[in-house]
Amino acid sequence: MNKTALVLGATGLVGKALVKQLLVDPRYDAITCVVRRPLPAKLFNDPLHKLNPIVIDFEKLQEYHGYFNVRHVYCCLGTTLKTAGSKEAFRKVDFEYVHIAAQLCRNSQCEGFVWISCVGADAASSNFYLRVKGELENAILRMTQLKHAAAVRPSLLLGKRHESRPMEQVAQYMAPIVGMFMVGPFAKYRPVSAVEVAHKMISLQHF
């Protein structure tokens, strides 16, 4: 049985937490990460030599279908409108790349595809970010022959980022206090750590 996982978005907040957990998960023999640029040597501790980083051109993602011959695919790709620079560039990363990854996963008959959406994702939303996330959920979950597709829908992500996000930093500082009041139907809006999200993604795969 294939015991390899493929990770897209390994250098992001959740992606890093996910890869660290996968590298010590005995159910996997190898972790392949497709990335835009070479990984820093000290980014991951890999005592069992499971990590296999591959630099690719995401504009030509379909050409790398061979790397999708794995058991499970984890997609942590995502950006922000500010970083992307435009709605079109944002949609390319958060919709197109993830959708193509799901298609390649389906074509390779992987056992599972898990990706990161967000709480409140809704294709009918007037909010551009939530609308794109909702449209992606609809597109992937309607994809025939894609085995065990599942999305995680976190609220505010807690963790240390490389890039500066002042408003998010303030929100993270207030998160422990605000979270105490988010109970019942509001519990899904509680801030959540990247480590927890990564753990949830792994739990959604079928072993």
From TrEMBL:
It comes from the Bacteria. Keywords: Membrane. One of its GO terms (cellular component) is membrane. This is NAD-dependent epimerase/dehydratase family protein. Residues 5-161 form the NAD-dependent epimerase/dehydratase domain. Its main location: membrane. It comes from Alteromonas pelagimontana. It is found in: Membrane. The keyword Membrane applies. The keyword Chloroplast does not apply. Pfam families: Epimerase.
